[in-house]
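Fig. S4 source data, part A: sequence.
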Amino acid sequence: MTTAIPLPVWWDDAADGGTNMAADEALAAEAERRGGLVVRLYAWTPAAVSLGAFQKIADARSIPAIADVPLVRRPSGGGAIVHGSDLTYAAAVPKAHPWGRVPQAFYDALHEAMVAALADRGIAARLHVAAGRPAADDGAFFCFDRRAAGDIVATPPNAAPAPQDPKIMGSAQRRPPGVVLQHGSLLLRASEAVGPVARHAGVLDLRPEIALDVRGLAGAWLERVARSCGCRVVWQTASFRREREAEVAQNAVRFRAEQWTARR
C-alpha cells in the first residue's frame, strides 16, 4: 500500500503585512526544498491593504477609504485586498508538480475544494466562469470588485445564481524559477477598518445565521485539497514564522520599505 505524501500545514498567529509577506517568501523556498505542496494559514494585525505586484502606488494613495491603514505590496499579482477580516492562505508548490505547470490548475484545485467545504456547511458557492471578452471590472483596484475564471462567488439564500453574486475568495500567483507561490483570501466579513468603498461582504455577512467554525472549515478544505493530490494533511505544531524568525525578520525589512511598496 502506497503511503500518502505529507502535506505540511502551518497555522500562524497574526502579524503585520511585511512579516507575512516575508514568511510567504520563505514558504516558497520551503516548497522547493521539500519538493512538494506546503500551505500556511494566517491573519493580520493591524488591518492592512496588500497591493498586487503590478498595481500603482498612486492609485492606492488616491483612495481616501484606505488612507488610515498600512499598505504592503505582495510579490503575487491581482488586485488590492483589505486584510484583517479574512482568512489568508499561502500555498507553494514546485513547478515540476502537476499543479505547478499550469497556473489555472493550482487555482482550481484549491478553489474547488473550498466550494465543496462551504457547501457542506450550507453555503452555496461556485467557481466564476469567465465567458467571452474579459469583464470591464478586471482592472478594478480591489480584488473583490474583480471577477476572473476560478474565483469563488456566493449566492445569497433563497436566490438563484446571478452574475452579480458577491465574490468571497480570490487567489493570485507569483511564478519565480522552480516554484509557484499562490496567495489567496477567503473574505469572512466586511472590514470596519476602511471606508465603505473598500468594504466587501464576506461569508459571515451573507449568512449571519450560520455559526461558522473557521478553523473547522479550513481543516475540511485542506483535507479535500490533500485527497485531490494524493497527500495527507500534517498540521505543524510550531509557527512557521517563529521557526524561521531570523530569516523572516530580515526579509520583512524589505517588504516594509518604501522602495518596495512604491516600486510602481
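Fig. S4 source data, part B ends here. The longest strand covers residues 86-94.
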